Amino acid sequence: MASSLARRKTAAPPASKYDRRLSEILAAAVDVFCEKGFAAASIRDISRASGTSLAGLYYYFKSKDHLLFLIQQEAFSTLMERLEAKLAEAASPEQGIQAFIQNHLEHFAGNPKAAKVLSHESDTLKGTYQEEIAALKRRYYRQCLALVDRLKSARQLKGINSRLAVLSLFGMMNWIYTWYNPKVDGDWRQMAAQMTAVFLHGVLGDGAAGGAAGNVVPAAEEEGNQKSASERKRDMAVVPGRSLQKT
Questions:
Q1: For 72-95, b where at least 16 C-beta lie within 10 A, e where not — what string?
Q2: Which residue from 48, 58, 170, 187 puts its CA 20 to 30 A from 163's CA?
Q3: Which residues lie below 8 Å from residue 31, measured CB to CB, with a gap of 6+?
Q4: Which CATH number applies to 71-244?
């Protein structure tokens, strides 16, 4: 696996024939996994969808597990690369949070099938593949945690639990592939603006609002406890995942 990943990183610029073809194959695989699920999909299905022979596919990946790994690796690597560029222009903690939300929604509103695959297949990979993706998820989560901690420090929000705020934000963003309709909800920029406002107003609410929220926490916890294990797991599947439960 290491040699395959090294080839992707060092061999050719993004516009190379190899990378263009790999991107096409990954996109075709996302379509197939989204429609059939990882377990039911076959390499032959991906061969037909991508217009590539079975032998030709194995030039780009070793196995179906490796293919799913590449899909997830590309998604999270792209998210973080674009995020770094956006954060470089953020002049305040609020703008940093806004940049994070915009980046996440821009990617997944434009790639709803990829969002579904990442969510539904979040626990499919095992061994080294799973460990590498879990490390990428932790890095992405910790980037968001650092942004919330910066906001907390700058605005002296002593009563805010940063971990809870971050996981709540991911819970708000991760499910858009199930309901987002641009004709009703606007484009991703409008959606990001509203989600940013919802998140920041909650974080920056006054003491009275915080007290009122505190009064309903037990009921919210009770409702959460009634969810099935699979529902709770899928709430956090796209980004944090099970690997962050002890973070």
A1: bbbbbeebeebbeebbeebeebbe
A2: 187
A3: 49, 113
A4: 1.10.357.10
CATH 1.10.10.60 location in the chain: 1-62
Per-residue pLDDT reduced to its tens digit, 222-246: 344 444 555 444 444 555 444 444 4
Mean per-residue pLDDT, 58-67? 96
CATH topology of domain 1-62: Arc Repressor Mutant, subunit A (1.10.10)
Q: For 31, phi and psi rounded to 5 degrees? A: -60, -45
CA distance 128 to 111: 26
d(CA 71, CA 127): 16
The whole-angstrom separation of Cα 196 and Cα 223 is 25
Sign of the alpha-carbon dihedral angle for 198, 203, 208, 213: positive
> How many Cβ atoms are within 10 Å of 26's Cβ, its own excluded?
22
Q: What is the pLDDT of residues 153-195, one digit of tens each?
A: 999 988 889 999 999 999 999 999 999 999 999 999 999 999 9
